[in-house]
Design brief:
alpha+beta; tt1808, chain A; 3 domains; six-stranded antiparallel sheet; 9 helices
C-alpha cells in the first residue's frame, strides 16, 4: 500500500466509524471533509493561502452566497468544494452556488460531497460550465481501485491537472457505464432482459415470459459474479488454501454465548490429511475481507483451513484470530473473537448472515491494529 492509499484508507475508516453520528453539515465538514482535504489531497486547511473556507467572490453571485472551500494554487482558485450533510443526495440541482461560481472562476475542478461520496466535475462538454455527470466518483465505503491514481493526481504533492482533464472524458463515461452495469446486475431492466432472452429463447416474450426471464437473469448475474470472484480468490489465495497449521478450535459451545478462551500463545493444531477448502468457505472469507475493507489493507487478512473449521486471521498470525468458519457440520456457525480472545458462537442460516457480525469483526481487528 502506498502512502497515498494509506491516507485514503485512514479517512475511509473515519467515514465508516463516524458517518452514523453526523447529524449536521458542519459536523460532516469537521469530521470528514476537512480531513479528506488535508490528509488525502494534502492541502493545509488552516493556511488561507491554500484553503479558503466560506469563500466569497464578488463575481455576480447572489449576495451572501458562499463556496464551502476554495483550494488555491499559486494565488488562484483551482478546486471548488461544496459540502452537504452526510447521507444527503448529491445533485448539482442542489448545489447552485457551485455551478454559478464555477462558471465565473478560473477553477477547473468542482467537487460536490456529503463526506462519504465525493463527486468530481469539470467542464468537458462546454467551457466554464460544469458537466452534468462527474468524471470521477469516490465512495469512501466502497472505493474503486481504478479511481485512486486519478484522485492522487489532484493531490497537492503530485498535482497534474492536464493529465486529469485529458483522461476525464473517458473516465466519466466508463464510470457511468460501470454504474449502469452494476444497476442492471442488481435489478435487470425489461430492456436488458428482452435482449438476453431473445438470444436463448425462441418463444414469444409476453409479460409472463419477461417475468420469468427477469428472475433467471438475476440468478445468472448472481452466479456469474460469484464464479468470477471465486476464480480470482482461488488464484489470489494460492498457498493460503492449502493445509497449513492453524489455531486450535477449542471446546465447542452451544447457542450465541461467550466463553473464555484457553488458547495458549503459539499453540498449533495438527491438521488431518485431505483438508479441502470449500466454495462456501472461500465465499465466507471473501465476505469477511469485504467487511474489513477500510480497517486494514486486504493483504493482511489471511485464511487457514483445518479439518473442522476454517480460520480467518490477521497478518498470518494465529495470535490474531478474527473469526472461524464452522461450515462442515449440519448447522453452520461463525466463531467470533474479542480483544481478550473470548469467543462468541453465532449461528448462520446463510452466508449473508455474516454481515450481521460486521461490527464485532471490525472491533477485534481494530484491537490488534491499535496495540
Amino acid at each position: 500500500m502506498t502512502e497515498f492509499e494509506d491516507k485514503l484508507a485512514q479517512v475511509a475508516r473515519r467515514a465508516r466509524d463516524y458517518a452514523s453520528s453526523l447529524d449536521t453539515e458542519e459536523a460532516t465538514k469537521n469530521a470528514l471533509v476537512m480531513p479528506f482535504i488535508s490528509q488525502v489531497l494534502g492541502y493545509d486547511v488552516f493556511d488561507p493561502q491554500e484553503v479558503v473556507p466560506e469563500f466569497v467572490a464578488d463575481l455576480g453571485l447572489k449576495k451572501g452566497e458562499k463556496i464551502d472551500y476554495a483550494i488555491m494554487r499559486e494565488g488562484k482558485v483551482n478546486i471548488l468544494v461544496e459540502a452537504k450533510k452526510v447521507g444527503s443526495e448529491l445533485s448539482l440541482a442542489h448545489a447552485s452556488q457551485l455551478v454559478r461560481y464555477f462558471h465565473t472562476s478560473e477553477a477547473r475542478i468542482g467537487v460536490l460531497t456529503n463526506g462519504r461520496v465525493w463527486n468530481f466535475y469539470t467542464d468537458l462538454d462546454k467551457a466554464n460550465i460544469l458537466d452534468e455527470r462527474p468524471f470521477l466518483v469516490l465512495d469512501l465505503l466502497d472505493i474503486d481501485p481504478v479511481t485512486v491514481p486519478k484522485l492522487e493526481q489532484l493531490a497537492k504533492g503530485s498535482f497534474d491537472l492536464d493529465s486529469v482533464i485529458a483522461a476525464a472524458e473517458e473516465l466519466k463515461y466508463v464510470s457511468a457505464i460501470k454504474r449502469e452495469i452494476s444497476a442492471e446486475m442488481a435489478a435487470p431492466s425489461d430492456e436488458l432482459v428482452k435482449v438476453l432472452a431473445k438470444r436463448v429463447y425462441s418463444g414469444y416474450m409476453n409479460a409472463k415470459a419477461v417475468e420469468t426471464f427477469t428472475r433467471l437473469t438475476e440468478e445468472a448475474a448472481r452466479q456469474y459474479i460469484n464464479d468470477r470472484v471465486n476464480a480470482r480468490l482461488k488464484t489470489a489465495l494460492g498457498d493460503q488454501v492449502s493445509p497449513v497449521p492453524a489455531a486450535p478450535a477449542g471446546p465447542v459451545d452451544t447457542g450465541d454465548q461467550t466463553v473464555p478462551s484457553n488458547e495458549e500463545n503459539g499453540q498449533e493444531a495438527q491438521l488431518k490429511p485431505g483438508v479441502v477448502t470449500t466454495e462456501e468457505e472461500i465465499e465466507g472469507f471473501r465476505i469477511i475481507k469485504a467487511i474489513l475493507a477500510g480497517i486494514v489493507p486486504m493483504n493482511r487478512v489471511y485464511m487457514r483451513d483445518a479439518a473442522s473449521y476454517c480460520s480467518v486471521i490477521l497478518d498470518d498470525n494465529n495470535r490474531k484470530p478474527v473469526a472461524r468458519l464452522h461450515f462442515d457440520g449440519k448447522m453452520k456457525y461463525l466463531m467470533l473473537f474479542d480483544a481478550e480472545k473470548n469467543r462468541t458462537r453465532v449461528g448462520l442460516e446463510n452466508l449473508e448472515d455474516i454481515y450481521e457480525s460486521a461490527e464485532a469483526l471490525r472491533s477485534v481487528v481494530r484491537s490488534y491494529v491499535e496495540v
